[in-house]
Design goal:
The chain has 250 residues and is mostly beta strands. Helix content is 8%, strand content 38%. A hairpin with a 4-residue loop joins strand 16 and strand 17. It is globular, with a radius of gyration of 19 Å.
Amino acid sequence: MKKLLLSVCVLSFLTVTASAQFIGNLVINEFVASNTDSTGGFQEPDGGFGDYVELYNNGNVDLDLEGINFSDDLTELDKWAIPAGVTIEAGGYLIIWADNDPDQTGIHATFNLSRGGEDVVLSQNGDIIDAYTYGPQETNVAEARVPNGTGDFVKQTPTPLANNQSSSTREPATLRLNAFPNPTADVLNIDLGTERFNRYDVVNLAGAVVMSSELTGGVDKLSLNVSSLAHGQYQLIFDGGKAAASFTRQ
């Protein structure tokens, strides 16, 4: 009997410890429950405009999200599980598309967010990591934590994959840029034309940012060395969604 009791206590301790690494570190940082292709929409890798939730890692270590559940219902915490192999780096962002399109590029939950209001919940083993209950939403308006990652939710212009305090306005992600050669093994070239951008992020199929940099000097062409990236498909996103290009690292 004593041996069995000890085993139960150890199991309980391990469960609490596993969840503890996420509390306060893995947070729901921003969401849009009515994301469209009108002004201000954030475009998916495959070209659509599904609703999304942005996660943020407040901690100083990378987090493996296998076993983390995401739901729109506080009474059904295990509605959908983040797939195995998805991580979020320290200080990094991750986009989950809440559009019930699991076969598309990126991470797509098997349900939609309600524009009329409901819950957004992260949990593990039945323990809530972060949750927020929201009311009616406006099209292409985000609810986001300000200060970034720690503050209360406020309504503002969406800033996907970027600090919520970094910008008060953002153009729609309708501009598709030409990236070449595509596929590429090492150098990727992007013709920016007459557009000028302040930043780019390279995002993998899991929605994680794997490269990023500020842009200065009003460049009209950009050459990126992508030889360090794993083989696969990527999105190059400018200014948090103002423009984008797709490419394959072969």
